[in-house]
Each structure stands twice: as structure tokens, then as C-alpha cells.
Amino acid sequence: MLTVKGLEVNYGMINAVRGINFEVNQGEIVSLIGANGAGKSTILRTISGLVKPAAGEIIYEGKNLLADSPRQIVQKGISQVPEGRHVFKGLSVEENLEMGAFLRKDKDQIQKDYQEIYERFPILKERLKQDASTLSGGEQQMLAMGRALMSKPRLLLLDEPSMGLAPIFIKEIFNIIVDIQKQGTTVLLIEQNANMALQISDRGYVLETGEIILSGSGEDLLASDDVQKAYLGG
User: Fold this and answer.
1) At what angle do helices 93-100 and 137-149 cross, to 10 degrees?
2) Which of 193, 186, 229, 190 is nearest to 207 (CA)?
């Protein structure tokens, strides 16, 4: 579904991503794990068209995305939930969800999808008219995910969905990610909580200073001595 080949991204003189290669197959949850500054968020922003790479290819469903704008990338079925959630302050929960569907024309289906979002995130239905910025961190994360899902993505990019959340919300967010996958959406997940991420992932890649140093199934990476020592406190 998604193949990244020889991707290099520079910020000035800093080589943030160094010729990485990875793939995401349809129906999978794939995790990118690594410490702060490893290049994880840069990779997602490049896939979304927000950052232009110095070299490499990003092939989605057989076509290179590098010439596409972020808007075109969303239209092709890729949506991102950014790190820090970034809900629209001053807009209600309902208006934030509407923003997720702004490129869609299928009005009847949009109404059905709102109902699905309310069923998946019942707290949002209770808060429809509330300013999104007044929600708790966990509620804002649910809203950000609901907003992305309203674009009907085939590939969902999640950037640190558990960051800053209370433990009770973290478990709920990961359960929601698994449910989203079961409903047919492919997920590329960036997470510092390597233990939780790998538990739900079909496969994973470990990044260190812009390079992939290890890859394998979620189960194999959880059992890896190197991963245990570096990321799981083993």
C-alpha cells in the first residue's frame, strides 16, 4: 500500500532522515519507534506532503506522492493526526469534525459517518457544541482522530497519540486504534510508548538518528534484547 524508498530529509545542514526504506501493507498496523529526534515525525510530515524530501520516493497505491500537495494527498486517502492533537480553537467539537470532511461531496454518507464517530467516541456527542480547546487532553485526542476519520482515509497516520495523556486514556486510545484497523483502515503509528505500540502492531521499525536500525514483527521486536534495553526498560 505504502512504500518509502531511500527517503532523505534535511533541515538546513541537519540530515534528519537518512535514506530509509520501509513499507506498510494494506490492513496492517505498523509502528515507527525511537527516541525524540530520531526522525519519526519528520517521516509522517513528509508522507503528508508538509515537508519536501531531499531524495527518495514515497509510493502510495502504486503512485509517487512527492509532486502532490497536502490537499491532494488527503484526497487520495491519507490522513494524519498530528502530534499534540491541534484541534481548532474557537470551533466547536461539531465544527472540528466538519473540517475533517471538507473535501468530501457525498453528503448523505457524511451524515452516516458522523453517527459512526459518535458511536465510536460517545463523549464527543455529549460535547458537540463545546469549544474544542476546552476538552481534556484525552477528549481532544479522540476529536483529532474523529476529525481525521471523517475524511474516510484508507491510510491513517498517527503521531504520538498517547503523548501527555493519563494512563486510563492511553489504554482507551490504543483500543480505538485496534478497532479502527479492524474496520478496514491501515495505520502507520509513531509512538514513544514502544511497549503499547508493539503490542498492537503487525510490524515495526526502530529508528535511531534518522536511520532504521531494526525491523520485524511487533512480537519479535518486543522480545528483542536491544529493544528491551533501549525502549522497554529491560
Assistant:
1) 30
2) 190
